C-alpha cells in the first residue's frame, strides 16, 4: 500500500494523465520540484512505486509515468 508521499506522486501523475492523456509522462526533475518533500524522499517513493508496478520509468530514469494499474489505484481512492 503506497504511503502519503507515494499517493502525492500518483495523484500528480494522474492529473498529468487526465490533462495530456495516458500515460501521464513527467520528467523526474519536475516531479521532485512539485512534490513538497526532500528530493531523496521523492526519489525513494518513485522507486517504491516502480517496484510495485504502479509507475514505470524510462531506461535512463529521467521520466516517470503511470501504469494502468497505477491510474486505477489512484482513481479508486479518489486521489485526483
Could you explain how this protein is built, in words?
This protein is mainly α and 80 residues long. It is built from 4 helices and 3 strands. It has a 3-stranded antiparallel sheet. A hairpin with a 5-residue loop joins β2 (55-57) and β3. α1 (4-20) crosses α4 (68-76). The two termini are 17 Å apart. 29% of the residues are buried. The model has no long low-confidence stretch (mean pLDDT 92).
Helical coverage, percent range: 55-70%
* DSSP summary, beta strand count: 3
SSE string: HEHHEEH
- Gyration radius over CA: 11 Å
Uncertain regions: pLDDT < 50 for 5+ in a row? none
Number of helices: 4
Strand order of the largest sheet: 1-3-2
User: Which overall shape is indicated by the principal axes computed on the Cα atoms?
Assistant: globular
What structural class do helix, strand and pairing data support?
mainly alpha
Sketch the major β-sheet: 3 strands, antiparallel
Q: What is the arithmetic mean of pLDDT? A: 92
Percent of residues in beta strands? 5-15%
* Span of the ends, CA to CA: 17 Å
Oligomer: single chain
